[in-house]
Amino acid sequence: MQRRRTRLEFVCRGWKPCLVCGDVEGKFDVLFNRIRAIQKKSGDFDLLLCVGNFFGSTPDAEWEEYKTGIKKAPIQTYVLGANNQETVKYFQEADGCELAENITYLGRKGIFTGSSGLQIVYLSGTESLNEPVPGYSFSPKDVSSLKTMLCSTSQFKGIDILLTSPWPKYVGNFGNSSGEVDTKKCGSALISSLATGLKPRYHFAALEKSYYERLPYRNHVVLQENAQHATRFIALANVGNPEKKKYLYAFSIVPMKLMDAAELVKQPPDVTENPYRKSGKEASLGKEIPAPEEESACQFFFDLNEKQGRKRSSMGRESKASPHAKQPRKPPQPPGPCWFCLASPEVEKHLVVNVGTHCYLALAKGGLSDDHVLILPIGHYQSVVELSAEVVEEVEKYKDTLKCFFKSKGKRCVLFERNYKSHHLQLQVIPVPLSCCATDDIKDAFITQAQEQQIELLEIPEHSDIKQIAQPGAAYFYVEFDTGEKLFHRIKKNFPLQFGREVLASEAILNIPNKSDWRQCQISKEEEETLARRFRKDFEPFDFTLDD
Length: 548
Known about the structure:
Elements: H1 7-12, E1 18-21, H2 28-42, E2 47-50, H3 61-67, E3 76-79, E4 97-100, E5 103-105, E6 109-113, E7 119-123, E8 126-127, E9 137-138, H4 140-151, E10 159-164, H5 189-198, E11 200-205, E12 212-213, E13 232-235, E14 248-251, H6 261-264, H7 280-283, E15 352-355, E16 359-363, E17 373-377, H8 389-408, E18 411-419, E19 427-433, H9 439-452, E20 458-460, E21 476-480, E22 486-490, H10 499-505, H11 525-539
Parallel strand pairs: 1-2, 2-3, 3-5, 7-10, 8-9, 10-11, 11-13
Antiparallel strand pairs: 1-14, 4-5, 6-7, 12-13, 15-16, 16-17, 17-19, 18-19, 18-21, 20-22, 21-22
Helix pairs in contact: 4-5
């Protein structure tokens, strides 16, 4: 059966071009009437991406007509968030939402990925180095977290499109004139750093009320590094400006993952040096950007120091090894701080309940039950599909052991992973009392709630590997039952972050709907320590890491 293609997927395949727009500033009729005229003349475009100020200081009467459905955008439109305090009120949800029919707010920051591989990275707001960060700004840690999400894999080569509102500082270096905009004074150094790290093929920005299509620039050093694709930076003017500066840009793009390597790295004849590369005082980006701290909304924290009754070696067993024994390979490390890497100094340190050679167990903070646990890799892996063979083997060992452990307590367990808006693999394991419901009831509850939220959950063969279905970097959700059956959803854009919890907390299963959000389930540190000690003691007879 052929899967229905989304609008984004059409763009990914280059079947239709898309449009990018500069500051709309509330001139919705001017913009959409212009697009109607263009489409009437040139044919349909797949979508419109808006950078800069989407809302203006004008009265809301015009917007109300779109918000209430009296008027409708003639094209699927995706917009960035606020750049000033005045317009923060329009963007209430940090993770993005529908503002009106055919008009969607992307969110504060993230990745918009098509099934064919096209990657659009977006960052809303203006630069702020102050704490707390205003609701219309981004910080150094926002920039670093985006780079960490994408650049931490060895396969990373760049992205297709980067959307920001501010220009990157110094973008005019080594390039054609940027007109009245002084790129050594205007723009954001953080955006320059982001563009340097992500290596977009196209980078769009606005806010300066000026059109500037910079000459393409290299992402490699000639004769010192392997050739890489070039980047095109395009800044767009404001809609309906009296000088008739260009505010709409049309282009077609084939995802870099689908391109022949030689074709991808072919250098345009007018390519220049990278404007952000340090070359004397002019191109210097100044002080290095601080390493990020993870967002405060992280759900799970781990104890790295509390003694667990035995001295363990790095192999996760009782310490008996010879001092000359071969040391295990060092696990992958994150490029910046990570809340979930076992050696991270950033985390709270009291909920680790078991440590193996490649993985460890931790109680969930704000868990659905007292024995809701996580299986996590010790090294930095984003998802199950990126795990090395030896880590996969130990994950499976933990899964089998936990099934036996919970069965001894009259429970079956449900496992799920959400590889979306997360940086480190968290395989959640939630026990469900056998008296609550059968496995088929749990499976039906997931399918029913998915259908209600228009989420396509596909059943995959019992012994199939997620790696056969999802590619590294792809966003997905999957749930696994005690029978070995699995349901899988490929995430194309938005996905409810609490979906797995909501289903399990529902009346059909655990009947604790008030616990669907982990933030409403937090208890004191003393209570968490008590639960962790209890779990360690109960789990000890099943602990395979203690075997000689």
